[in-house]
Design a protein that fits this description.
By secondary structure, the chain is of the alpha+beta class. The chain has one domain (3-163): PK beta-barrel domain-like (M1 Pyruvate Kinase, Domain 3, Beta Barrel), CATH 2.40.33.20. The protein has helices at residues 62-72, 118-124, 129-136, 169-177, 183-190, 196-206, and strands at residues 3-9, 25-27, 32-35, 38-39, 57-61, 85-87, 100-103, 106-113, 141-147, 149-151, 157-160. An eight-stranded mixed beta sheet has the order 2-1-6-5-9-8-7-11.
């Protein structure tokens, strides 16, 4: 696999009633430094729902973008979904919490799916956008940064699958939609390198 493009966003106004957003990301020339909280220069405006160590980098693969181009009937150029990195031949829907992506010196660990929000719906301009995003089950994937470094377009990307219990980002998104009512899912998540927020929810619900 190959890193095809790198995107960062600046604070911009949005039609949604959520204040400024860094969703609208544009391709940049590398190298770009990746730190524990994300790409250097990338704006995270809604810190309650975006960013942080468990959502430092947002990934999409070319199969995802190609699928969405057909589904939406419009171009989905790199950055369309607010993704930081586009990787060739990566189907993000099959990624699981704990999977590792290595790009040069940078090591990323998959943590969670993207959850659609009002900013995304306003960007799409369709009242059905959020339901459509859930139904598509092609959410892209967030990652935490295990090893900082710099990346450039054209770099090789290696995927190492988590060798334990596999909960995919799609499994996670389904659980989110049901407000994490599945105790088995939560019990499994506790044993995985899941986001801190998910661990907290699991501990509270399971009383552990």
């Amino acid at each position: 696999m190959e890193l095809l493009s790198i995107q960062i966003g600046k604070p911009e106004k949005t039609p949604a009633k959520t204040g400024p957003t860094g969703h609208f990301k544009k391709p940049v020339d590398g190298p770009v430094a990746i730190h524990s909280l994300g790409l250097e220069g990338d704006a995270i405006c809604d810190l309650k729902n975006h960013g942080g160590v468990d959502q430092a980098v947002y990934l999409f693969g070319t199969p995802d973008l190609e699928w969405w181009t057909k589904e939406l009937g419009r171009d989905t150029l790199p950055g369309f979904f607010g993704e930081n990195l586009v990787i060739s031949d990566l189907d993000t829907s099959s990624l699981a919490m704990g999977d590792i992506l290595t790009i040069g010196d940078v090591t990323l660990q998959i943590t969670a799916p993207r959850i659609p929000c009002a900013t995304y719906a306003a960007h799409i301009g369709d009242g059905r956008a959020i339901k459509q995003f859930y139904a598509a089950e092609r959410p892209g994937a967030y990652a935490r940064v295990l090893q900082e470094g710099s990346v450039s377009r054209g770099m090789k990307v290696d995927l190492t699958l988590y060798d334990g219990d596999r909960i995919t980002v799609v499994d996670y998104m389904r659980a989110y939609r049901t407000k994490f009512k599945d105790d088995d899912f939560l019990q499994r998540a506790l044993a995985l390198p899941a986001p801190q927020k998910l661990h907290a929810i699991a501990k509270e619900r399971l009383d552990v």
